[in-house]
Design goal:
211 residues, mainly alpha, 3-stranded parallel sheet, 10 helices, 5% strand
């Protein structure tokens, strides 16, 4: 059920792309989610998520009030047990200031914390490759890219022990990742869909013929 709704959301937003007066990268609206939230779990996002945007546009009490309003809206749409306040740590002062504010707000609203890492490359060494691909995407050079490039190499895929150490002061945020994973029982094997068979020569399989 959740996977079907996720596919519908993606299709709906993609169909808006390219229409006159519509953004190039359209996003799902609150109305879309209200209609298709069944079976889905909501994570509040990292640096590019809505809470980060709220904190970048507001300060002090106004940031807290706007965050609380947004979280209440998400809770109304997805349900009390399906909204997780996401925390990421990439050794950036601004990010940690936001984290501490979000921790206080989540606890006041009794919403669970979730430790994630905003992964954009597999290992620390792949950070340079990621920066090169970013420059290709934006048609610029390493020397001119500026803030388009990675702040550091911390957005790599971290092991369980690394994440546990990173969030040693917030064991509940680390533990919730395992509990959430246990909740998500969907696999692609449940789709019940089989791709059509492609005709191949007698001495070939589809994979060998493709290769």
């Amino acid at each position: 059920h959740g996977y079907k709704n996720l596919c519908r959301l993606i299709t709906r937003t993609k169909l808006r792309d390219g229409k006159p007066g519509k953004p190039e990268n359209p996003i799902a609206t609150a109305d879309d989610f209200a209609e298709l939230a069944g079976g889905l779990v909501c994570l509040t996002g990292g640096e590019e998520g809505p809470l980060a945007r709220i904190f970048s546009e507001n300060y002090g009490p106004s940031a807290r009030e706007a965050t609380c309003r947004h979280l209440e809206q998400l809770r109304h749409i997805f349900g009390n047990k399906n909204v997780y306040v996401e925390l990421q740590r990439h050794h950036r002062r601004k990010e940690e200031v936001r984290n501490q504010a979000q921790i206080e707000i989540a606890r006041s609203l009794r919403l669970p914390l979730l430790a994630t890492n905003g992964v954009s490359h597999a290992t620390q060494e792949k950070r340079e490759l990621r920066d090169v691909l970013t420059c290709v995407k934006h048609k610029t050079t390493i020397f001119k890219a500026g803030r388009l490039l990675s702040y550091n190499a911390e957005c790599h895929l971290k092991s369980s022990s690394e994440m546990k150490q990173l969030f040693a002061d917030l064991p509940e945020a680390f533990a919730q990742t395992g509990e959430l994973a246990a909740r998500l029982s969907f696999t692609l094997e449940d789709l019940g869909y089989e791709f059509p068979h492609y005709p191949v020569p007698d001495d070939e399989t589809e994979m060998s013929f493709l290769r």
